[in-house]
Specification:
heterodimer, A: 11 helices, B: alpha+beta, Ubiquitin-like (UB roll), Pdz3 Domain, seven-stranded antiparallel beta sheet, cell division (chain A)
Chain lengths: 960, 359
C-alpha cells in the first residue's frame, strides 16, 4: 500500500507545495571574509568592499546593500567609483578591469557587471608593461588613466574600454625634461599614484615609485612641473585648493610640495618623519584635510617606528596638538575620509574616518572631541571571538525586545552619537514581519544578541559570563591605557579579539525563553548558568551547585580540563541578563544539550557522561542520570585527544604571538615571531597533509554496538506535558536522547504554583527506548491529539498558541541521524518511520519544526520538519506522516563547519556560517523572505565642475 | 505436552555424545524412541546435538544452565533449526524467496541444519553472471562484519566504448570477520548496490553510512574481482525457481528497479522493528538470566536476542536513576562471567580525556 502513496502523485498536494516551499539564499550577514579592497563614492555615498574571492559588496544607508561576484574569483585589488555615475571599476589580481553598474530593474537597483577588459601590450612586450598599478577615473567620466609597472600610463575610453593609443603617457616623454643627474640615478619605475588636479581637470599628478613626481598637462601632453623626490614614493594627496600636495614615502616620511605656475622644479616645503628619528615603516596612504579653524587634519596609515612598533596596524590622525595613532587588531586594508563634498565649500572639514581592517570595519567620528568610534549598523564582526554556537528565537514580544535594547544601549555609551555617515541609497524593503533574535555563543564566554529581523544584522546586546568565574585572565591587563607622555600615542580600536584566555569559558548551548526572559547558557567546562533579565545593575551571589554525573562509577579518571573556579561572595552585574544559578557538571565535560522549561522552572543539561535536572526555583538538583557505557574510556582517549592537543598547541602559539606583541616594545624584530609561526604552521599543515596521504582512504564497515564510543553522549533534551504512563493522565516529562540511540523518559512531578517552594520536584524514570539501529538521537518531539507539536512553555499562557489537544492520543517522534520514527504514547510502539541513511546515504545533522504558511491564502499553514543532512541538503518532511516534501541543495558537503553552524528558525528560515565572520541567510518559505531591496538614485549632478574632483579622492593605489 | 528434567553434567568433561544420548533416553524413560536432541544456544537459536563436537560445544556454551530440547525424530521440523529459531517469528530469507519454495516438502539431503546461516548468495536468477548479491546475516552474531571499502576506478562498457568511472571497492577484510568467513566477498570486489540501492554517484562516506545503516541485514551486490568462480549457468537451466528471467551474460546492466526484485521491502525491515522499550515505572521484575526449560514451545523471547534481554535486565534494575546508579557497576561486575559481554572493567580503571569537539 505504501508505495502507492508516494509523494509526487497527488496534484493537489503538489500545487500546495509550490505555495508553501521555496528556497532562496537571501542575504549575507556579517563581515566579508578576507576583504582586499575598499572604495567610496562621495557622490553616491556608497562604500564598496572587494574580497580575495572576487566578491564585491556595496553598502549605503542601513538596508542598502548590493553584492556582485567576479566570475574569475580572483582577488579584488582596487575599486574606483566613476565620478558622478552609478558605476565603478574593479581591478583584479589577474590584471583584468571590470565595469559594474547599478541599474534599476523592476523598481529596485541591481548591481551588474557590464564590461571586462585586460590591457594588452604590443606583441613581445613583457607582461609588466601592461600590469596595472594605479587607476584614475577622470572627472570627465570618459576615460580611465591606467598607470603600469613599466611606467607608462595608458588611456582607455569608458565604457567601451577602448585603448586611446595616441594619448598614452610614456615614461620617455615624462623623463625628457628631467635634470640629467636625477634621471641617471633612477629610472621611472612603476606608477605608484595618479591624482587629478582638484581645480583643473586638465592636469594630473603622476607619482613614480622611485620618488619622481610630475604634473602632466593633458591638453598639451607635456610635463609642467617636476618634483624630485628623494625617497621611494608610496602615495600622493592634493590639498583642496590645488596649491599644494603631499607625498608619503617608504621611509616613514611625508613631504609637502608647492605647486605654483612660476616654479618648474619646486623644492619641498616640509619634510617630516612623524615617528622618527629611528627608522620607521612606510606611510602607505595620507590625507591632508583643511578645516575652517586653519589647523589641518593629517591622517596617514603606517609610519610606526620599525623596531618597536613595526608590527602595529595603525592609522594616525594629527590635528594641531592632538595626535592619536589608532591601533587596529588586524591588518588595515584601506581607509577613506568622509568630508565635505560640497564643491562650493572652501574647506574639507572631515567628519569621519572609515577604516577597513582585515577582520572588521571601524569608523571614527572626527567631529566629536576624543574621536570616538561609531557603532556600525551592519558589517558586524560576528567572529570578534570565534562563534561556538547559535540559537534563534522568532517573534520576540515587544516588551522583552525593548528591555534587551535598553540593556544594550547602556553598554554602548562610549560610542559616538553621530548618525551613520555612509547613507547613500534608499531601503525600500518592507518592514520585517516580526522581531527575531539570533543569539551567538562565543569562545570567550560571551553571548551576543543580534537583531535578525531584517537585512542588517545588528548587535543589540552583549552578555558576558566571565564575571561569574575566576580565570587566568588578568583584569588589569590593559594594553590600551597608556600614560599621557607615551609615544606613539597608540589607542586600541575595534572589537576583534580572537584570543580567548580560557577556552573553558566557551559557550556551547543557549536557550532563551522569550516569554519569561529566562536564559540558560552552558559551556565547555560543564557550566550551566540560568539568568534573569534585570533592568538595573545589581550585586548578588550566584547560587552554585554541582551535578556529579558519574555518581558511583568507580575507577574513572577525568583527564580533561578542570572545572572553572567560581568567585566567592556577591558579584556585580550590569543591567541585562544576570546569572542567579550556576550548575557545574562533574566531570566538567562540555555541555552537549540543554533545555529550559520556564513554566516549571526547570533546567536540564547533558554531557558525554549523562544528564541532570535542576530546579532553579528551589535551587535544588532534582536528579542525575549517568548514560556512560563503562567501556567507553578508550574512545575518549582516542582520536579526540589528538585533536585537542592540536587545538591547544595552536592556541598556545597564538598566545605566544600576543605576548610577544606586548613585550616587543623593548625588543627588536617583533615581526620575526609572526613569520616563525607562519613557518611552523606551514610545516604543520604539510605534516598533516602527508599523514593524510599515507593513510589509505578507506572506511570500516561495522555495525554500531553498545560498546561504541560516545554512546552515552546526550544529544538532545526535551520537556513535554504528555501521556507517559497511561492514556488517562498526562504529566510533565523530560526526554533525553543519546548518541547510542537510547531515549530516556522521566516522569516529573512539579508541585502546583502555591506549593512550588514547599514541595520538591520529583522525577522517576518511566521509559527507556533503545533504537535497534543505535544511531544518535538528534531530536525528540511530542505531537498532540491533532498531530501538532506541543507548544513551547508559556506559549499558551501568553495566548500565542492554542492549548495542545489532550484528548486524542499523543505521538512521539524520535529523529535519529539515520531515520525518523513515530511511536504511539503512552505505550511506545512503532507507528511509522522514514529511513534516510539506509536509502540515501545521508545523515541528519540539524532538525527543527517549522511553520510554513501559504503565499496564496492567509488561512493555511502547516508544520513540517526542516532537516539539514550531512551532505548539506535541506529536506522538508511532513508531519505527522513523515513524507519527504522537497529537497534543496544548500551547503557544499565539504563545508563541515557551515553545516555544523546551521540554525533553523521556526518560520522556515535559517542561517549558516559561510566564513568565520559571515552568516548566509536562507529561506525555505514562500512567505517569509528577508532580502535586501533598495534603490540608488543618481543625485542631481551640479553643473559646477569642481564636484568631479572630489570623487577622485579614493583613486589612490592600494598598498599592501 | 512436554515434561522437564533437570540434571547436571561435568562442564569440562562432558563425555561422548553417545553416552549423553543414552543418558537422555534413560532419564526420560524413552529408551525405545528415536529422538532428536537440540539445545538453545546463546542467541536463542535451536541447534542440534548429534555428534561429539556439537555436544561439546553445547555444554561449553552453557552458563551454567543448558536448555536441551528433545523431540521425536519423526516429528522434527528441520526448518526450525538455525536462524534464530527460538526468538523470531518471521522466517529467515531462505524461505522468503518465493512461495513455491516454501511449500515444497523439505528434502533432507544431509544435515544442513547443524549450522546457522551467516551468509547467502541471493537472486542468482536475476543477476548477470558477472555479479553476485551477497546477504550477510549479522543478527546475534558475535563476529564483526569485518571489512573496509575504498574509492577506486571501474571500467564500464557504454555505447561510447569503454569508460572509466569512479567506483567503490572492498579494500580489506578483517581476519576472522563475518565477511571473510563467508568466502563470498573478496578484496577488490566492486560494490554495485547496497540493499538494492545503486551506489553509483555516491561518495565513499555515503556508501559507508548506507552499509552501516543496513548492517543488521546487509545485502551487497558486488562484481567480484575474481570472475573465475562464477556460477556458469546455461540460460535455460536456472530452474531453481519458476521465475527465471532471461538474464544471460549479454544482460550487463543491473535491474533498474531500486528495490530488490524478489524481495519485499517490508520483509527487509522485519529485523529491525524490534526497538526495545522498557517500562521503567514498573517494579523491577526479576528475570532470571538463564531460563530453565518450562515448555518446549515457550521459548520465543520478545526482544531479538538474548543479549538484549540481558541488557534489559540491567536497566530494569536501574530504573530509578538517582539511587541505583551504583548498581550498574555491581551488575556489570556480576556479568563478568558472560563471555559475550565485554563489560568487564579494565584493570587500570577507567580513564578518559574530557575534550569533545562540538561542531
Amino acid at each position: 500500500m505504501r508505495r502507492f502513496l508516494r509523494p509526487g502523485h497527488d496534484p493537489v498536494r503538489e500545487r500546495l507545495k509550490r505555495d508553501l516551499f521555496q528556497f532562496n539564499k537571501t542575504v549575507e550577514h556579517g563581515f566579508p571574509h578576507q576583504p582586499s579592497a575598499l572604495g567610496y563614492s562621495p557622490f553616491l555615498r556608497l562604500m564598496a568592499i572587494g574580497t580575495r574571492s572576487g566578491a564585491i559588496k556595496l553598502y549605503g544607508a542601513p538596508g542598502v546593500e548590493f553584492m556582485g561576484l567576479h566570475e574569475e574569483n580572483n582577488t579584488v585589488m582596487q575599486i574606483h567609483f566613476i565620478p558622478d555615475q552609478c558605476q565603478l571599476v574593479t581591478l583584479l589580481d589577474d590584471n583584468s578591469l571590470h565595469l559594474w553598474s547599478l541599474k534599476q530593474h523592476s523598481g529596485a537597483s541591481e548591481l551588474r557587471e557590464e564590461h571586462r577588459f585586460t590591457l594588452k601590450g604590443p606583441p613581445g612586450s613583457p607582461p609588466s608593461a601592461t600590469q596595472v598599478t594605479a587607476v584614475l577615473p577622470h572627472s570627465s567620466r570618459e576615460v580611465l588613466y591606467l598607470g603600469t609597472e613599466s611606467g607608462n600610463i595608458f588611456v582607455v575610453e569608458l565604457p567601451s574600454f577602448r585603448v586611446l593609443e595616441d594619448r598614452t603617457i610614456t615614461s620617455e616623454a615624462v623623463l625628457q625634461r628631467v635634470p640629467e643627474d636625477y634621471c641617471n640615478r633612477r629610472s621611472c619605475e612603476l606608477v605608484e599614484a595618479l591624482q587629478e588636479h582638484p581645480k583643473n581637470p586638465d592636469q594630473i599628478l603622476i607619482g613614480y615609485s622611485r620618488g619622481l613626481i610630475v604634473l602632466w598637462d593633458l591638453q598639451n601632453s607635456k610635463v609642467t612641473h617636476h618634483f624630485l623626490g628623494s625617497q621611494q614614493l608610496e602615495n600622493l594627496y592634493w590639498q583642496r585648493d590645488g596649491s599644494k600636495f603631499i607625498s608619503c614615502h617608504y621611509d616613514g616620511s611625508y613631504t609637502q610640495w608647492p605647486v605654483s605656475s612660476d616654479n618648474r622644479q619646486p623644492e619641498p616645503l616640509e619634510n617630516l618623519v612623524p615617528y622618527g628619528p629611528f627608522p620607521c615603516k612606510a606611510i602607505s596612504k595620507i590625507y591632508w584635510q583643511t578645516t575652517k579653524n586653519g589647523l589641518p587634519y593629517i591622517i596617514f596609515q603606517g609610519g610606526m617606528p620599525r623596531a618597536s612598533y613595526g608590527d602595529r596596524h595603525s592609522i594616525s590622525v594629527v590635528h594641531g596638538s592632538q595626535q592619536t595613532a589608532f591601533d587596529f587588531t588586524s591588518r588595515v586594508i584601506d581607509f577613506f575620509i568622509i568630508f565635505s563634498s560640497e564643491p562650493a565649500a572652501e574647506f574639507d572639514d572631515p567628519s569621519a574616518m572609515v577604516v577597513l581592517a582585515e577582520e572588521e570595519l571601524v569608523v571614527i567620528d572626527l567631529k566629536t572631541a576624543g574621536w570616538p568610534a561609531v557603532h556600525p549598523p551592519y558589517l558586524a564582526s560576528l567572529h570578534c571571538s570565534a562563534i561556538t554556537c547559535s540559537h534563534h528565537v522568532s517573534n520576540i514580544p515587544l516588551k522583552l525586545w525593548e528591555r534587551i535594547i535598553s540593556a544594550g544601549s547602556k553598554q554602548n555609551i562610549h560610542y559616538s552619537n553621530m548618525p551613520w555617515p555612509i547613507d547613500g541609497g534608499t531601503n525600500i524593503a518592507p518592514d520585517p514581519p516580526q522581531r527575531d533574535l539570533l543569539l551567538t555563543g562565543h569562545e570567550d564566554g560571551t553571548v551576543r544578541f543580534w537583531d535578525a529581523s531584517g537585512v542588517c544584522l545588528h548587535l543589540l546586546y552583549k552578555l558576558s559570563t566571565v564575571r561569574v568565574f575566576l580565570t587566568d585572565a588578568d583584569p588589569n591587563d590593559n594594553m590600551n591605557t597608556l600614560g599621557e607622555d607615551e609615544w606613539p600615542p597608540l589607542r586600541k580600536v575595534g572589537t576583534f579579539d580572537p584570543y580567548s584566555d580560557d577556552p573553558r569559558l566557551g559557550i556551547q548551548k543557549i536557550y532563551l525563553c522569550k516569554y519569561s526572559g529566562y536564559l540558560a547558557v552552558a559551556g565547555t567546562a560543564g557550566q550551566v548558568l540560568v539568568m534573569e533579565l534585570n533592568d538595573e545593575d545589581a550585586e548578588h551571589v550566584v547560587d552554585h551547585a554541582e551535578a556529579d554525573l558519574l555518581q558511583d562509577q568507580e575507577g574513572y579518571r577525568w583527564k580533561g580540563h578542570e572545572k572553572l573556579k567560581t568567585r566567592d561572595g556577591p558579584v556585580r552585574f550590569e543591567a541585562g541578563f544576570q546569572p542567579f544559578v550556576l550548575v557545574q557538571c562533574q566531570p566538567p565535560a562540555v555541555v552537549t544539550s540543554l533545555a529550559l522549561h520556564s513554566e516549571w522552572k526547570l533546567v536540564a543539561f547533558g554531557t558525554s557522561h549523562g544528564f541532570g535536572l535542576f530546579d532553579h526555583q528551589q535551587k535544588r538538583l532534582v536528579f542525575v542520570k549517568c548514560t556512560l557505557h563503562p567501556s567507553d574510556q578508550l574512545a575518549l582517549e582516542g582520536p579526540l585527544s589528538r585533536v585537542k592537543s592540536l587545538k591547544k598547541s595552536l592556541r598556545q602559539s597564538f598566545r605566544r604571538i600576543r605576548r610577544s606583541r606586548v613585550s616587543s616594545r623593548k625588543r627588536r624584530g617583533g615581526s620575526g615571531n609572526a613569520s616563525e609561526v607562519q613557518e611552523a604552521n606551514a610545516k604543520f599543515d604539510q605534516d598533516a597533509l602527508q599523514e593524510m596521504e599515507l593513510a589509505p582512504v578507506q572506511r570500516k564497515i561495522e555495525a554500531r554496538s553498545a560498546e561504541d564510543s560516545f554512546t552515552g553522549f546526550v544529544r538532545t533534551l526535551y520537556f513535554a506535558d504528555t501521556f507517559l504512563r497511561d492514556s488517562s493522565r498526562h504529566c510533565p516529562s523530560l526526554w533525553a536522547g543519546t548518541n547510542g540511540g537510547t531515549v530516556y523518559a522521566f516522569c516529573l512531578r512539579v508541585p502546583p504554583a502555591e506549593r512550588r517552594m514547599d514541595e520538591p520536584v520529583r522525577a522517576e524514570q518511566a521509559k527507556e527506548i533503545q533504537l535497534m539501529h543505535r544511531a544518535p538521537v538528534v531530536g525528540i518531539l511530542v505531537l498532540d491529539g491533532r498531530s501538532t507539536p506541543l507548544p513551547e512553555p508559556l506559549e499558551v499562557a501568553h495566548d500565542l498558541s492554542k492549548s495542545p489537544d489532550m484528548q486524542g492520543s499523543h505521538q512521539l517522534l524520535v529523529v535519529s541521524e539515520e531515520q525518523f520514527k513515530v511511536f504511539t504514547l503512552p505505550k511506545v510502539s512503532s507507528k511509522l518511520k522514514l529511513k534516510l541513511t539506509a536509502l540515501e546515504g545521508c545523515r541528519v545533522r540539524k532538525v527543527t519544526v517549522a511553520n510554513f504558511g501559504s503565499c496564496k491564502t492567509d488561512d493555511y499553514s502547516e508544520n513540517d520538519l526542516a532537516v539539514l543532512t550531512n551532505l548539506g541538503d535541506i529536506q522538508i518532511i511532513s508531519l505527522p506522516f513523515l513524507k519527504l516534501q522537497i529537497r534543496y541543495p544548500c551547503i557544499r558537503k565539504e563545508d563541515v563547519s557551515g553545516i555544523a553552524s546551521c540554525v533553523f528558525t521556526k518560520c522556515g528560515q535559517g542561517f549558516y556560517l559561510i566564513s568565520p565572520s559571515e552568516f548566509e541567510r536562507f529561506s525555505l518559505s514562500t512567505k517569509w523572505l528577508v532580502e535586501p531591496r533598495c534603490i540608488v538614485d543618481m543625485p542631481e549632478v551640479t553643473s559646477n565642475n569642481h564636484v568631479h574632483n572630489k570623487s577622485g579622492m579614493d583613486n589612490t593605489a592600494r598598498k599592501s | 505436552g512436554a515434561e522437564f528434567r533437570r540434571f547436571s553434567l561435568d562442564r569440562y568433561k562432558p563425555g561422548k555424545f553417545e553416552d549423553f544420548y543414552k543418558l537422555i533416553l534413560h532419564i526420560h524413560h524413552i529408551a525405545n524412541l528415536e529422538v532428536m536432541i537440540g539445545y538453545a544456544d546463546v542467541h536463542g537459536d535451536l541447534l542440534p546435538i548429534n555428534n561429539d563436537d556439537n555436544f561439546f560445544k553445547a555444554v561449553s556454551s552453557a552458563h551454567p544452565l543448558l536448555r536441551v530440547f528433545i523431540q521425536r525424530q519423526d516429528e522434527v521440523d528441520y526448518s526450525n533449526f538455525g536462524t534464530n529459531t527460538l526468538s523470531r517469528k518471521k522466517k529467515a530469507l531462505v524461505t522468503l524467496r518465493n512461495d513455491n519454495l516454501r511449500r515444497r516438502p523439505h528434502i533432507n539431503i544431509s544435515m544442513p541444519h547443524d549450522f546457522r546461516p551467516v551468509s547467502s548468495i541471493i537472486d542468482v536468477d536475476i543477476l548477470p553472471e558477472t555479479h553476485r548479491r551477497v546477504r550477510l546475516y549479522r543478527h546475534g552474531c558475535e563476529k564483526p562484519l569485518g571489512f573496509y571499502i575504498r574509492d577506486g576506478t571501474s571500467v564500464r562498457v557504454t555505447p561510447h566504448g569503454l569508460e572509466k568511472v569512479p567506483g567503490i571497492f572492498i579494500s580489506r577484510m578483517v581476519p576472522g570477520g563475518l565477511a571473510e568467513s563467508t568466502g563470498l566477498l573478496a578484496v577488490n570486489d566492486e560494490v554495485l548496490e547496497v540493499n538494492g540501492i545503486e551506489v553509483a554517484g555516491k561518495t565513499l562516506d555515503q556508501v559507508t553510512d548506507m552499509m552501516i545503516a543496513n548492517s543488521h541485514n546487509l545485502i551487497i551486490t558486488v562484481k567480484p574481482a575474481n570472475q573465475r568462480n562464477n556460477i556458469i549457468r546455461s540460460s535455460r537451466m536456472s530452474g531453481s525457481s519458476g521465475q527465471s528471467t532471461d538474464s544471460t551474460a549479454s544482460h550487463h546492466s543491473l535491474p533498474t528497479s531500486h528495490v530488490l526484485q524478489n524481495f519485499h521491502p517490508d520483509e527487509m525491515e522485519s529485523d529491525e522493528e524490534a526497538d526495545i522499550v522498557i517500562e521503567g515505572g514498573l517494579e523491577p521484575q526479576h528475570i532470571p538470566k538463564l531460563h530453565s526449560l518450562t515448555s518446549s514451545s515457550l521459548s520465543r523471547i520478545n526482544g531479538s536476542s538474548l543479549s538484549h534481554r540481558l541488557q534489559r535486565d540491567l536497566v530494569l534494575n536501574n530504573n530509578s536513576g538517582r539511587e541505583s546508579n551504583g548498581n550498574i557497576h555491581k551488575l556489570l561486575s556480576s556479568l563478568k562471567t558472560d563471555p559475550r559481554h565485554s563489560l568487564v572493567i579494565p584493570r587500570g580503571g577507567i580513564e578518559e580525556d574530557g575534550t569533545v569537539i562540538t561542531l
